[in-house]
């Protein structure tokens, strides 16, 4: 039974949206951490995305204990569809997101909300850091930002100095709900990677200010099955790449940025390009050579100049691959990548290792 009765809906400060799929082992810890928040004026929306395990009943059990919880059940449609359902149902002035295998410290919502500027006529984006750890609790890294406020006229700095694309994670952000509704901002359900970054970039086209904060109350638990390392279809990766290009061009135009100013954005964009370029060769993707060659032509022919100026691989194999692509030697490139992946050289797909999403705090 869907718990969305009208008499339970009330206007609150924050709607916390949690998409849920196969989360029976972590869900209760996630929910309890949200309910223990020092800022009590929130609603918790649990979106059960057709989980085949006990997640559904766990959601209902928690909803019976706390009237701030509303539960919605839907057929499995993916995390973006689940988050979009939460956005439709949210009644809060602001929204934030928590994943069902993560948890948050007591002041998570309070620090996000108190970071808002006092002028309620302005719509902002609040961005905080997080702690990344393993399931056993060992800390991998801490993403900690410096306190900083950027007004709309300073937004160019977010892309030139701060490299905000590296902050495209879904957690530790506060979004204004009426701005999302006004501009029909939603997660792209055709995209299986970077959908949170694309959502943030679209929101930035319309908001009035950005506030960075040094709080790290979100605990992101990294599992080996993380969506960020899963292999997706060419179509999904290509849609992501095209939407990223579109948003980058809109940002460049709106804030009067030069190609040099956009270097960090294009560098981030090349991560999507690399994923799109190589996803057909991943184990588990049984794509025929004819289709692989068609994908290569489609990807390279439409963005040849962008590849020429901004795709600068690290590995020698990729440098040779770039030469083949720029000279449209698709058959040889296909042979090269097929051989590389048969040899199990995983790093060619993943790129250079990094200890964290951010190498140093934002100044």
UniProtKB/TrEMBL annotation:
For this protein, the record's Pfam families field holds: Glycos_transf_2
* Documented EC number(s): 2.4.-.-
| Molecular-function GO terms, alphabetical | hexosyltransferase activity
Q: Does the keyword Secreted apply?
A: no
Q: Where are the transmembrane segments?
A: 330-349
Entry keywords, A to Z: Glycosyltransferase, Membrane, Transferase, Transmembrane, Transmembrane helix
Looking at the keywords, is Kinase present? Answer: no
Ranges of residues in domain Glycosyltransferase 2-like: 15-180
Quote the protein name from its UniProt record. Answer: Glycosyltransferase, group 2 family protein
| Organism the protein comes from | Parabacteroides johnsonii DSM 18315
């Amino acid at each position: 039974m869907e718990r969305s009765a009208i008499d339970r809906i009330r206007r609150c400060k924050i709607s916390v949206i949690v998409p849920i799929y196969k989360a029976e082992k972590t869900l209760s810890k996630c929910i309890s951490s949200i309910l223990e928040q020092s800022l009590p004026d929130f609603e918790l929306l649990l979106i059960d995305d057709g989980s085949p395990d006990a997640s559904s009943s766990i959601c209902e059990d928690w909803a019976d204990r706390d009237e701030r919880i509303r539960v919605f059940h839907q057929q499995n449609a993916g995390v973006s569809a689940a988050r979009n359902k939460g956005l439709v149902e949210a009644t809060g002035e602001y929204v934030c997101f928590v994943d069902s295998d993560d948890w948050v410290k007591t002041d998570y919502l309070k620090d996000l909300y108190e970071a808002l500027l006092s002028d309620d006529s302005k719509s902002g984006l609040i961005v905080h850091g997080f702690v990344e750890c393993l399931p056993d609790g060992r800390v991998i890294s801490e993403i900690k930002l410096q306190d900083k406020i950027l007004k709309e006229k300073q937004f160019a700095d977010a892309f030139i100095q701060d490299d905000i694309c590296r902050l495209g994670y879904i957690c530790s952000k506060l979004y204004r709900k009426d701005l999302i509704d006004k501009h029909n901002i939603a997660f792209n359900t055709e995209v299986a990677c970077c959908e949170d970054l694309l959502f943030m970039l679209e929101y930035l086209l319309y908001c009035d200010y950005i506030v960075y904060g040094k709080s790290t109350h979100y605990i992101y638990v990294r599992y080996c099955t993380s969506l960020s390392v899963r292999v997706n279809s060419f179509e999904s990766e290509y849609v992501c790449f095209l939407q990223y290009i579109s948003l980058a061009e809109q940002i460049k135009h709106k804030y009067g940025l030069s190609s040099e100013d956009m270097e960090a954005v294009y560098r981030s964009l090349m991560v999507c390009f690399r994923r799109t370029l190589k996803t057909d060769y991943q184990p588990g993707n049984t794509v025929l050579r004819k289709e692989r060659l068609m994908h290569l032509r489609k990807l390279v022919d439409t963005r040849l100049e962008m590849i020429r100026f901004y795709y600068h691989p690290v590995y020698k194999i990729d440098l040779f691959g770039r030469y083949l692509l720029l000279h449209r030697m698709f058959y040889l490139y296909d042979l090269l990548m097929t051989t590389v992946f048969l040899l199990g050289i995983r790093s060619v797909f993943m790129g250079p290792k990094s200890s964290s999403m951010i190498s140093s705090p934002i100044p």
